[in-house]
Design brief:
The chain is an alpha/beta fold and 223 residues long. The chain has one domain: Rossmann fold (3-Layer(aba) Sandwich). The chain contains nine helices and five strands, in the order E-H-E-H-H-H-E-H-H-E-H-H-E-H. The protein has a five-stranded parallel β-sheet with strand order 2-3-1-4-5, sandwiched between helices. Helix 1 packs across helix 9, helix 5 runs antiparallel to helix 6 and helix 5 packs across helix 8. It is globular and about 50 Å long. It starts with 12 loop residues before the first strand and ends in a 13-residue tail after the last helix. The protein binds thymidine-5'-diphosphate.
């Protein structure tokens, strides 16, 4: 049921768009920052590091929900994530606009996060239908980390989000693994990276995955 919407031949892929995915504490934010620094070098296309929840008004409300400051039904949160994504994609300065003018956009989280996290929080059906019409990324990088190690990393941070508990994170990892083949079948290139490696090694694997994107062909980015 859940994967069927990703076998829809009408599903479009956004060229020049990649998403980082993984459980909490898997290092997506650190790796996106390392990639952003790499793109500051010469001979590379313009690069935009994005993230969801966004910094827009809906994203700000979502952050309050994640911190437990505002209590909302899980179904309401699922709708907020989708609304935030809609702005992120189609709004001014959004993903489609940037990718269309030749920027490479990499987002820390995208539709798979909703299918996984809201799939656990309120069942598969609602997030699947809310996200069914959003276009797909060209590349999806999954940062795979065992949940105990991830939780140890999170424990050193101040505060704890509503999803940052071991039972939940174990389900998150399982669901990502079940979900990724459906994206591959829909034509998304999926790269799985062992997120227990040292950050420098992970950064090299990320770079190897990203440099295969057509936007980087012929831009001296093969090394
Ligand atoms: P995260 O991206 O890990 O950022 P930070 O570590 O800076 O807080 O946190 C975002 C949280 O939101 C994470 O627990 C996953 C969750 N999330 C969803 O549940 N659904 C979504 O659609 C998105 C984009 C995120």
């Amino acid at each position: 049921m859940l994967l069927m919407c990703y076998n829809n031949p009408a599903m479009t892929i956004i060229h020049n768009f990649a998403a980082f995915e993984g459980g909490d504490g898997s290092g997506t934010t650190t790796q996106l920052e390392l990639l952003r620094k790499r793109f500051a070098g010469p001979g590379l296309p313009p690069f935009h590091a994005a993230s969801e929840p966004t910094g827009g008004p809906i994203g700000v409300l979502i952050r309050r929900v994640l911190k437990g400051e505002t209590a909302l039904l899980p179904e309401t949160a699922a709708r907020l994530f989708a609304a935030d994504r809609n702005e992120h994609l189609y709004g001014p300065g959004g993903i489609l606009e940037r990718c269309g003018r030749g920027e490479l956009v990499v987002s820390d989280r995208y539709t798979p996060s909703s299918l996984v996290y809201q799939g656990i929080a309120c069942g598969e059906e609602l997030p699947a239908s809310l996200n069914a019409s959003f276009p797909l990324p060209e590349l999806l990088i999954f940062f795979d980390l065992d949940s105990e190690t991830a939780l140890k990393r999170i424990a050193s941070r101040p505060g704890r989000d509503i999803y940052e508990y071991l039972d939940f994170q174990i389900q998150v990892r399982t669901r990502y693994k079940a979900l990724l083949p459906g994206y591959e079948e829909a034509g998304v290139r999926v790269e799985r990276i062992d997120a227990s490696l040292p950050p420098g090694e992970i950064a090299e694997l990320v770079w190897r995955a990203v440099r295969k994107m057509p936007i980087l062909e012929g831009m001296g980015a093969k090394n």
